[in-house]
Write a structure and sequence with these properties.
The protein is of the alpha/beta class. The chain has one domain: Class I glutamine amidotransferase (GATase) domain (Rossmann fold, 3-Layer(aba) Sandwich), CATH 3.40.50.880. It has 5 helices and 12 strands.
Length: 197
Amino acid sequence: MTIGVLAIQGDYDAHRLRLEELGAKTVLVKKPEQLDGVDAIVIPGGESSTMLKFLERDGFLDKLRDFVRLKPSFGTCAGAILLAKEVENPSQESLGVMDICVRRNAYGRQLDSNIFEADTTIPGGPLEMVFIRAPKISKLGKDVQVLATYGDDPVLVRQNKMMAATFHPELSADKRVHEAFLQLVRESLDEHLNRRS
Ligand code: GLN
């Protein structure tokens, strides 16, 4: 299986390294046609409005939207903003696929760039979370499962084949979040094969 990492802007290389450490084959996706060769996509942190400007060229945004409707995706921070159905502060375009509302730069200085430990349903105890100008998930649809919280706020969520984190799991030593995503990708590929046989 090959995992694409959207490599337009932001900290995509840290995701690539982490996925490769876990044994996955990766492709840095810089052009829309590269989506044809990958089984899943990671959308990294960075600046969502800058990424959008690039994606709005050459039909990249539409192609990516079609991709994430069918195949597994994992958005971290700016990537979570891109997956969300609704974006506020200010409102901006997105892929609109995950049933969450996300408020950009929601924590102000309090969480501007900081590291915390917080609870998660992923086995192995509390999770280290690196927050950088993090967005906040302000609304959750009923089909969205919460995998980790910081205080009362959901910070890692899943809806079917999509995962989103408001923090940066690629920047801490703990590999469990990427492992959980790779597991999701494997399950989704198995499901696809079973349906065809
Ligand atoms: N503040 C950024 C945005 O609004 C997200 C920050 C990040 O990805 N670390 O897009």
